[in-house]
Every structure is written in C-alpha cells, then in structure tokens.
Fold Protocatechuate 3,4-dioxygenase beta chain.
Amino acid sequence: MSPSDLIQRDRQWHPPAHAPDYKTSVARSPHNALLSLQNTDSELTGPTFGHDDIDAGDNDLLRNYAQTGDPIGERIILHGRVLDENARPVPHTLVEIWQANAGGRYRHKKDTYLAPIDPNFGGCGRTLSDDQGRYMFRTVKPGAYPWRNWVNNWRPAHIHISVFGTAFAQRLITQMYFEGDPLIAKCPIVNAIPDPRAIGQLVAALDLNASAPLDAIAYKFDIVLRGHRSTHFENRPEGN
C-alpha cells in the first residue's frame, strides 16, 4: 500500500454518539473519551465466519423461507457493489441482510407490532460478493413501523446490511433506505447524521435498468468500506 492509497476520514461525516432526539442514544453514549485499542493478531487474521455456508438460494428472500407460496409485498431487487476508498471492488465478501416484512414486522419474538407475520417470509439472506465486488438479493420492500422514541415516530422502510471481511473482527453493519421515502427526513436516527451527503449515501437509488419487467423493481446500493466518504456503519462510527 502506498501513501496515496490512504485517505483520511472526515470525522464530521458520521453522527455523534449523543443525539438527544434519538432518545436511547442518551443513555448509551459514552461520558468519557474513548480509548483506541490495538487489534490482536488473531482478530486481524481469522477465522472468517460463514463464507463457506452459502447455499444457492440464500440471496432469494422470496423463496428461502416460503412455506406455501411467495411472500406478500412489493417485489424488489437489491444490488450494488462493495468498494474500498479508491472505488476498487472488494471481492468474496460476505454480505448479509435482514429486514421487516411488507407490513413492517420482523420475525422476532420481541416484535409486538400489530402487523401480521408473513408465513412465507423469513426476512434474512446472505451472499458473497463476486470478483467485481457485486452482490444481489431478491426480496420484498419492507414496511415502515412505529417505534417508541417520541409520541408518533415511524422508522422509514429500511434493510439492515452486514459486511463480513477476511478476519473475525472485520464486521460492519449499516442500514439502507429507499429513494423517495418521505419518512427519511422525519427520522431522528437518520437525522443524527450531520451531513446530508452522508445521509444520501445511505439511500438506495431506484434502478429501472436493473428491474425485472412484470416482476420486480430494482434499487442500487453501493457500500464503501473506508475513506473520508465511507458508508456510515452503526458499529464503527468512524468506518473501517
């Protein structure tokens, strides 16, 4: 790696840990300066997790849990590339997603939202990026749902995305939103991010060229792992 490969991160690109409008951040945010810890050799060198456990249909959420038919909802294709800070592809990276169903409910015992569970939708999928860093999922567009922040807050439709690298400590998690959703501008979690351009990089663009006619609308979402314009990751505020 040459010096020109290293791009300093923009610390203003990511949200502060303490964002009062996002109520749970008040109790969870640190009160003292954080310590930088050096990773151990075992954390940096392995093992990888899950890369050898991919089945052919794992990236098809329309089928990978279906019991009696296709899930209910707007069928979509989610695709994009995993890239580094210099727009180079990151191949063979484990990309996992999880989401609510079309009614806005997760398949989780602690989700008590009144929307019904869809018996044909599990809400989880996984795939490996190819040699050019490309990934693709088929799924349904998740619904918005209420959450106990203020009296009437609703989360925008979103999909959680996990990217797992080549070593045990190299896991990053983010959320992806959908172009044109009016709830994005109303969400206290989203608006904890100070730079509108950073919010824009969490929004998947409508991609009619990749849509399947009479089948599914496509959205494109590229994931940038490092650099001063990296995708915002929930578990590492400064990127990776």
The mean pLDDT is 88. The longest strand covers residues 75-83. The chain is about 5% helix and 25% strand. Helices lie at 24-28, 41-45, 196-200.
